[in-house]
Amino acid sequence: MSCQDMKHQWEKYKNGTLTDKEAETLEQHTENCEACSAHLEHLLTEDEPLSPTPSASSLSDDTMLDNKKVKRSIYMAKWKQRLSNVTTVISSVVLLWIVGSFLSIVYYHQSKTEYINSVNQAAIESAFPNVHIRETTSDTQSFFRMQSQMEAYKQIGREEQAIGTFTFHQLFDKTSGVEKEFSGGKYDLNLSFVYPDPKKLKQHAQEYKEWTNETWNALENLPKGTVSEVAISFDDTYSLKEVQQKMNAIDSHDFSTSWYALNTGNEQRTSTKNEPLIDLTSTFGFPEFLDLPYEHKGNQTHSTSKSNVLNMMKLLADNEETVQKVRQLDHSDLLLKQRYSYVKKHGVGVYGVVITGPTKKLLKLKNDPSITYASLGDVELWNWFNRPSSGTLMNQ
């Protein structure tokens, strides 16, 4: 029946003269019609009680009782309609969430997840000297969202120290946000570099000498039972192979090289600003073992190669927005595509490194004529030995 056909039934309902069959018909119609259900709710919530008509007043007690049952039945129909609507909404939301979760799992397949995590890892390791990612956990969420947590460490001596957690929020392929939670609430940027620009080296020669002597003096005054972290800058840009050979020639058992400062062709921009040091937020580099998930399967056991660095720079150039959120720099300062093109054309040039090892052994570099500047990072108690067994308990 249509709502128009039920119109006269509502009059009988108001007068309390519905028969059982008519009440059943009205109840069924109300359950399936939102308009009539709303009309019924309006009738049931009216403040003024229904005035019995003469015909209703003359009804027998049994008839009045039947009419009360009819009203109760229709009242229940109204609540059934409400419950049905609520159930439909909840079911739709749950179904939508399940479908959204399934689509996210399909979208963030293994290869895509590895690519995104490689971009995030490269953005961190290229920006923070002597920092590398050791642990990554990814959580796929509904509606094409994913959250990745990366545990960042730095090497001091032969031990790795946790410096904090980077949390990346993805929406499709876009990085919607990056949260940084450093251990102790902060991270000190004490390592700095000098670009081997002849003009600048001559202009600030005295400053570089004084600052470098302060670093060597600090190492001399530190106790013997300590390990330190030092960033050194060279007098020129050398190839990756030349730097690796140079470091190994000194004595690889006395210290280890953990990070390389990469010449991307834009470091000289700071020269025009009369700044003696490269801006800490615009230094680019790579760790000794550059192991990006998208490029390698498992842990890399060999030192970083030229192709590794080129792949890293391409990842950065193709994902500038992620790099911006990690470094908090504008596009005009990043110039990632220009940097990538420069490295691709001129090769992997290194103008500085971060080394770590026994404090007194690092002093072997003090008289190296190719070192123009040195800065001291973190210092820890002696750990330059191999532990037969070790482990870590995490918070729960």
Outline the structure in words.
It is a single chain. The chain is of the alpha+beta class and 396 residues long. The chain has three domains: 101 residues, no CATH class; 74 residues, Nuclear Transport Factor 2, Chain: A; 191 residues, no CATH class. It contains 14 helices and nine strands. Strand 2 and strand 3 form a beta hairpin. The longest helix is centred in the first third of the chain and has 47 residues.
Topology as a string of helices (H) and strands (E): HHHHHHEEEEHHEHEEHHHHEHE
User: Count of DSSP helices?
Assistant: 14
**Structural class by sheet pairing and helices:** alpha+beta
Query: In percent terms, what proportion of residues is strand?
Result: 15-25%
The counted number of beta strands is 9
C-alpha end-to-end distance? 63 Å
Characterize the biggest β-sheet: 5 strands, antiparallel
Helix content: 40-55%
Give the overall shape, derived from the CA principal axes: elongated
Mean pLDDT: 84
Q: How many structural domains are formed by the residues? A: 3
- Residue stretches low in confidence (pLDDT < 50, at least 5 long) are 47-59
Strand arrangement in the largest pleated sheet:
7-6-8-5-9
The radius of gyration computed from the alpha-carbon positions, rounded to a whole number of angstroms, is: 36 Å
Oligomer: single chain
